[in-house]
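REQUEST
  id: r-88c1
  op: predict_structure
  target: Zinc metalloprotease
  payload:
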Amino acid sequence: MNLLDYILPFLLALGILIVVHEFGHYAVARLCGVKVLRFSLGFGKPLLVRKAGADQTEWVLAAFPLGGYVKMLDEREAPVAAHELHRAFNRQSVWRRIAVVAAGPLANFVLAIALYWGLYTGGVEELRPRLAAPEAATSAAHAGLQGGELVRSINGEAVETWQEFRWKLLNLALDKQVVTVETVNASREIGFHKLDLAGVVVDQAERDVTAQLGLQLQRPKLPAVLGRLSASGAAEAAGLREGDRVVRIGDSSVELWTDLVTIVRDAPGRTLEFEVLRDGRALRFQVTPSAVDDNGRSVGRIGAALADAEDQREQMFVTVRYGLGEALSKGIGQTWDTAAMSVSVMGRMIVGEVSVKNLSGPVTIADFAGQSARMGWAHYIKFLALISISLGVLNLMPVPVLDGGHLLYYVIEIIKGGPVSERAMEIGQQIGMALLAALMAFAFYNDINRLVAS
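RESPONSE
  id: r-88c1
  status: 200
  body:
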């Protein structure tokens, strides 16, 4: 993949999330009778400006896309005509101001719920939580977990997918708990295993939580049978066909699809002799894998997919689908759990229980955007939902310059019976800008460290 394969999905995601967030502010401001002067996607010099509506609101696309804002009529920023004073933001009741400010983060949560609801209604294909044999001397091995077992629940909570299994483990690992994992094996025997999470380190610089525990997803042994071929791929150009069974490449025998993939990946641009079985006959072909960039490494590809094996597919995948009402409930639950997890991790970072290396900046987010887009639309939608929730949580932090900081001012106003002084707000803004700049710098530093480490 080239750089655009990461930048374009990142910019698309960023644009969607910013527009939704700012539209939350805009819509509630209009409902509260506040005059909106400008809706801007991005900061800095306006590239495109269009005026629309009875108030001639400016709709702006600006040069620097990492953010946006809604500018409202406000006496603190410019003189307001007497006949429009009732439409100034600063003249609204504290409860209306709270509604306008809170609407941005809430819009991000609503977007996440809608995305999850759409996925669960339409159905999304997920990996089953079927375990491979655990590594020796790991927590999973000590717990008695065995290869081929299917996870049914953790601490009594049902588990349907591998992703759900990993998510629940991550949540429980924050508290270093000993959890009960319920499994069922091929003989339909149910087992209960005590899995100790005390040794797990929640840190992006470390291995995944499941890997630390010795847990791996079982990967079936699939024969090296070619499926759909790319029209411009090396396999079709060499004369290979769908349904060919590869038995040898060069001097190496090939039994499994993983054998084929390993040999091809290690031979970009180098001609290989494929021996295949076709209709009972052994045939040989000269195939030159194309050189493709994979995260900075040149690897070989021949443009051939694995033949669909329905029996193996049934063992590996499950389609998660719910009715409209249950899908909505699942979407709300997923959004709530993710937001609560984000808040918990932030709190644990402050007290030192979780490493600050878990902070991610735009480089890491762009990397995830590109990877999720490459994996398919369902994964990209999940990425959008996750980042939308993170944006909502971040903006609710009680830091001046963020929405949460303004909400904090309004809570103080309610308690003391009057607005916070202009001087206090000015000092708060300066502190907030410094904190936000430090947070962004540290997140970017983590991004660079991850790039160097990888």
